[in-house]
């Protein structure tokens, strides 16, 4: 079975058809920069453009960078605040003419890593942290997702953790890999103190460069890179769409 997965991010909206047997993208992903300001109307129009780009019928899965409850957006850290209260699942279904499944973007990445990637077959407490524009997290207990954990918003040094250790902070402050890796390590140590996971999977855009910053890690639990790297969000969204197929 092939389904379309789309990852709506703070800086880019990316999609591709995914083979659900192998968990692999079937074609190159198609990316359009997230329109700014990232208001509902503009983002939904862009997401629908990505759906039309691919000649693939069936339901579409979307990962979205906010807390989602019953299709409705509940938070807006890296998107326009006018999203709060919008039933994004309904609006995306209207704009695309498809059944839509909408999940948090980090939960999507986690679903993919647990199914096809670094978390496959792992019981116990597993947390996936995606380092990108913000920090997203997804938590699994014996393979079952505990949705919307939002551990990117724990407090660190008087601010939310993602304003200290996200990949966007590395770019904005022009931090070297070692300095930024130190910040990520502090973040992972804090996560470890809070939830004592058996495994931490580091994903998001920065996971493509994992080898450059992971030597800074001293956290006292197993830490591995996301095997699906920054494609996990697309793959997990497609997998989530299966529930509507
Ligand atoms: C949002 C999360 C999202 C993460 C990564 C955070 O700012 O609150 O919902 O998963 O960014 O996009």
Task: Provide a quick synopsis of the model.
The chain is α/β, with parallel strands linked by helices. The chain has helices at residues 40-53, 88-96, 105-116, 162-165, 167-172, 177-195, 210-213, 232-241; strands at 2-8, 12-19, 24-25, 30-33, 60-64, 68-69, 72-73, 100-104, 125-131, 135-141, 144-146, 155-156, 159-160, 199-203, 222-225. The protein folds into two domains: 2-105, 2-Layer Sandwich (Nucleotidyltransferase, domain 5), CATH 3.30.420; 118-226, Nucleotidyltransferase, domain 5, CATH 3.30.420.40.
Description:
The chain is an alpha/beta fold and 245 residues long. Helices cover 32% and strands 27% of the residues. The chain folds into 2 domains: 2-105, Nucleotidyltransferase, domain 5 (2-Layer Sandwich), CATH 3.30.420.40; 118-226, ATPase, nucleotide binding domain (Nucleotidyltransferase, domain 5, 2-Layer Sandwich). It is built from 8 helices and 15 strands. Strands 1, 2, 3, 4, 5 and 8 form a 6-stranded mixed sheet that branches. The chain has a 5-stranded mixed sheet with strand order 11-10-9-14-15, covered by helices on one side. A two-stranded antiparallel ribbon has the order 6-7. β9 and β10 form a beta hairpin. The model has no long low-confidence stretch (mean pLDDT 96). Bound molecules: beta-D-glucopyranose.
The top-level CATH class of the largest domain is: Alpha Beta
- The overall number of domains is 2
Q: Which ligands accompany this protein?
A: beta-D-glucopyranose
Q: Report the strand count.
A: 15
Radius of gyration (CA) equals 17 Å
Helix percent band: 25-40%
Give the SSE string: EEEEHEEEHEHEEEEEHHHEHEH
Main beta-sheet annotation: 6 strands, mixed
Superfamily at the CATH H level of the largest domain?
A: ATPase, nucleotide binding domain
Q: Helical segment tally?
A: 8
Low-confidence stretches: none
Principal-axes shape call: globular
Query: How large a portion of the residues is in β-strands, by DSSP E?
Result: 25-35%
Give the integer mean of the pLDDT values. 96
**Helix/sheet category:** alpha/beta
Write down the CATH topology of the largest domain. Nucleotidyltransferase, domain 5
Distance between the termini: 10 Å
Architecture of the largest domain, according to CATH?
2-Layer Sandwich
